[in-house]
Amino acid sequence: MTRYPPPRLIGSAIYRGSTYGPKHPLAIPRVPPMLDLCEALGWIEPEHYIDSPQASVEQLTRFHTPDYIAALMRVETAQAVSEAERARHHLGAHGNPIYREVFRRPATGAGGMILAARLTAEEGGVVHVPGGGTHHGMPDRAAGFCYLNDTVLGLLAWLDLGLTRLLYVDIDAHHGDGVQDAFHDDDRVLTVSVHEANRWPFTGALDDRAGGMARNIPVPTGFNDSEMAHVLHHAILPLAERFRPEGIMLQCGADALEEDPLARLSLSNNAHRAVALALREIAPRLIVTGGGGYNPWTVARCWAGVWGTLNDFPLPPRLPPRAEAVLRGLSFSRAAGRHPPEHWFTTIADAPRDGPVRAEIRQACEAVLR
Ligand SMILES: [Zn+2]
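That is the input. Now the predicted structure with zinc ion docked in place:
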C-alpha cells in the first residue's frame, strides 16, 4: 500500500481583518474562524500547517492577462479604479469591490493552490486550502467576488508538473464557470459541477459539456443530503472510476448549505465531509479548497469539519469551551445573525438533512453518464 504524507493545511494571516466592505456578502470572516476552530480543537500540528506564499506575477500570468494583473496591482496601491479599468476588468463593479488587499489576498490564495499542486504532485496525499476556490475568476476580469482563478492556476500547475488526468469537482452552489471555460478544449481535465439551477452565473445546464470534458448537474432548490449522496454515488464516483484521475481538486464552497443567505439549497455540512472523504479514496492526490459561503458560522463549522475528517479526527458531539468561544465570538449583520441557534456555537456536525431523492436528480445523474 502506498504511504502518503499526512494532510497539510495551507492558510494565511492575510485573511485576518480583511473584508470586502461592510455591505458585501464577504464582509464576514471565513478562513480565520475556521483556523481558530481547528486550533482550539487541537487539530493543527505545526508541522502540517503551511503559511501560504503569494503567487508571483509570472505564476499568475500563466492564466491571467498581464494587463489585468498590472491593473489589479495598481488598483490595490491606489485604492481607486479608473473608468477604463472598471469597464474592462470589472474592478470596483459587478460585486467586485476595491478593498485593502484586493491584489495580495487573491494572489495569496493562488500561491497556496500552486503550492498545494506542487506538494501533491511530488508526494501525493491531501492538501486543504480553505482560502482557495475562486472558481469564477476570468483571464482578463474579476467575476462573482473572484479576482483571480486560483482553482485554474492550481490545475495548470498540476498539468505543468506532468500530470495528465485531472478531475475537478465543484459542489459550490454556483456553477464553476471559470474552470469549465479554462479547460474547454483540454481533454486532460474533466470538470464536474453540481450547482443550483437558475442561479448566477446562469451557465452549466445539464446538456452543457463544454466541448466534451465537462459534466453539469444543476439541482433544484431544497437539494438535500440524500440527493447529494445520490449524485456522489451515481454520477461523481462513476465518472471518476471511468476517468481514473491522477489528481482530484474539490471546490468545497459552503454556500449550498441550508443556512446560506445567497442560495436556496438545503445541505447539511455532513454532505461536504462525505464528498471529501469519498474523493480521498479514489485518487493518489486530493486538493480541497474553500469557495462560496456567506454565513460565518456555517462556513467555519463546515470547513473545520472537512479538515478534521480529512485527518480522520473524530468530531466532538459537543465542542470544548475554547472552540465554542471562537463561534460565540462571531457576529453577522444579516437576519440570521440576530438569534443564531445554539448548535451553531456548540457543534461542528449539523443534524443530517435527508429527504426524498427527486426524479429530476436521478435523471440528471443518468444523463451525465450517457
Ligand atoms: Zn458560490
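The pocket of zinc ion is lined by residues 172-174, 253, 255, 291-292 (CB under 6 Å).
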